[in-house]
Amino acid sequence: MSRTNFDTLLEAGCHFGHLKRKWNPSMAPYIFMERNGIHIIDLHKTVAKVDEAAEALKQIAKSGKKILFVATKKQAKQVVAEKALSVNMPYVIERWPGGMLTNFPTIRKAVKKMATIDKLTNDGTYSNLSKREILQISRQRAKLDKTLGSIADLTRLPSALFIVDVMKENIAVREANRLGIPVFAIVDTNSDPSDIDFVIPANDDATKSVEVIMDACCAAIQEGLEERKAEKVDMEAAGETAATKGKKRTAKARLDKSDEEAINAAKAAAFLKEDEEA
Fold it and tell me: Is the pTM of this model over 0.90?
């Protein structure tokens, strides 16, 4: 069953591309026609690509790995933040921190700095500082939280990136390519899809367009998370069953040993009785 359908994408305006003067010839395989200077995206291909991407994202989530969502453009940032939070995935909706992937240890240090400030604030360490110093620390904490707060739980490199507007997020794409991290992206007609592993051809300027595609992909991610949870419960139940069976086998072994000892004792008693009668 398809994750989304033609009519839903049509209503969301996913088919509207950029003006002819802005279109990228590399997107030709995904373009249905050109009308009034605007390239129209083939939504049948969009449906197929959404399904393909959603299934891959589901498997990543099912394996317990993280997907980093990236969208710093005004039209998409709020939608992406809400959808990413709904499936407990990290996201970047402010400026992309250069070197976030290629220099990940430095980013982690900055995230840990936030945790350190919180700890020292809560235990009263900063209570003896001047108001000016406390204000400076608070501003630093707020600045870090704005850019890195949404990736605080990302303790290792993500297993995939989901990007809205590959032209605007070109640095993120390059870093992911360099590290061999798969890139999923909503790619408009003015973009080059050659560096994208999972291309979803669609309008990346319309909030509704982004929302419809995000809904389908995040629903798949949620399914993956639920299946992982169910499998974990089954494994734990299987482990308890195996442990119970092990205990039963041990108890049976003890009973068998006791029976054997009783039989041997009875045989010995009978032998001694025969010996006495003789």
Answer: no
